Amino acid sequence: MKRLLVLEDGTVFEGEAFGADLYVTGELVFTTAMTGFQELITDQAFSGQILSFTFPVIGAAGINRDDSESITPTCLAVVVQHLVEMPSNWRQQMTLDEFLKRKKIPGIVGIDTRQVAKIVRKFGRMKATVINKGDSIDHILDQLRATVLPKDQVRQVSTKTAYAVPGFGKSIALIDLGVKHSVLRQLSQRDCNVTVYPHDISYDELMEQQPDGVILSSGPGDPHQVKKLCRLIQKINGQIPIWGMGLGAQLLAQAYGAKLAPMEVGHFGLNIPVREIATGKIEITSQNHLYSIARDRLPHDLLVTHENVNDHSIEAFRHRYQPILGVQFQVDASPGPRENLYFYDEFLELIDAKIHESRREKE
């Protein structure tokens, strides 16, 4: 079946249908990742977005039960150039086509996805539609341009009730903005006793549990739409260590007075270089975010620790006086480089320091 990818600027790509037989409209983004398509499709940070892969061959490893980052993926559609219909990986349990059909996600194959990336880079963020061929292009464009995209993606992907990932170590309250399974795995490997909470948990409910530390997970959407969580962060005010990842880092910065700005293209890929300012060390990182922290409006209390090599945007920061850590890039190693897993240990060190400080005050 013929299927179209129609961009808001009027560009039309024709390809073949795979996955679910659905018509969707959403924000178009691309990723330069050469691996980890299952992890990316199931990453809740892509909720409400049409995900285009610039790497030309997708699906060779198939889908397995271990590599998903969520049970129910919420990306709107998948765009690829060439789809592997017979995966060869020994762990594969189904093809990407079968998986998308089960999850009710449409796909389109046979698209020049690198050309798609060039258009997005040139003209910036835009809406797009994936639709079966048949309707007139003018009608499709009229509907596309009139569509108002939802802004409450965090509410859609966050857990509705709290749940535990038990351990015997430090008590971590993880506020779910679209948490990835690999983050929970990393915390479990460090024997943390994790409780995952909904995004709208109140200050009193959180502090009643007396956590040793709080993590704000990565997630989708506009950070300006999650104002309640900013007020929660302000109420905590350094009483316990907080670590923000991705969207969580943006909310953390915003709560402490930083300004956020939408990016024209965003950072999407597994090979984005980041510089640690103190040492000059270069790390290769995995990223998927559309907002940046404005460096010229950064409060003095927030210290930039890492910056993007390509555009010098802020990638990580600390609070000068409070146990606060924010990291824009992915720190879960799935998929992507594993060289920044030390942030987990740094956060646990912040918790240790806070515990020792509290004990001294009591003495």
TrEMBL record:
Span list, region CPSase: 1-170
Pathway assigned in UniProt: Amino-acid biosynthesis; L-arginine biosynthesis; carbamoyl phosphate from bicarbonate: step 1/1; Pyrimidine metabolism; UMP biosynthesis via de novo pathway; (S)-dihydroorotate from bicarbonate: step 1/3
GO terms, biological process: 'de novo' pyrimidine nucleobase biosynthetic process; 'de novo' UMP biosynthetic process; glutamine metabolic process; L-arginine biosynthetic process
CDD domains, A to Z: GATase1_CPSase (cd01744)
Residues that bind L-glutamine: G219, G221, L247, Q250, N288, Y291
Keyword Ligase: yes
EC numbers, comma separated: 6.3.5.5
Domain Carbamoyl-phosphate synthase small subunit N-terminal: 1-131
Pfam families xref list: CPSase_sm_chain, GATase
Superkingdom field: Bacteria
UniProt keyword annotations, A-Z: Amino-acid biosynthesis, Arginine biosynthesis, ATP-binding, Glutamine amidotransferase, Ligase, Nucleotide-binding, Pyrimidine biosynthesis
Catalytic residue list: D332
Catalytic activity annotation: hydrogencarbonate + L-glutamine + 2 ATP + H2O = carbamoyl phosphate + L-glutamate + 2 ADP + phosphate + 2 H(+); L-glutamine + H2O = L-glutamate + NH4(+)
GO-annotated molecular function: ATP binding; carbamoyl-phosphate synthase (glutamine-hydrolyzing) activity; glutaminase activity
Quaternary structure note: Composed of two chains; the small (or glutamine) chain promotes the hydrolysis of glutamine to ammonia, which is used by the large (or ammonia) chain to synthesize carbamoyl phosphate. Tetramer of heterodimers (alpha,beta)4.
Function recorded in the entry: Small subunit of the glutamine-dependent carbamoyl phosphate synthetase (CPSase). CPSase catalyzes the formation of carbamoyl phosphate from the ammonia moiety of glutamine, carbonate, and phosphate donated by ATP, constituting the first step of 2 biosynthetic pathways, one leading to arginine and/or urea and the other to pyrimidine nucleotides. The small subunit (glutamine amidotransferase) binds and cleaves glutamine to supply the large subunit with the substrate ammonia.
UniProt-recorded name of the protein: Carbamoyl phosphate synthase small chain
Designated gene of the protein: carA
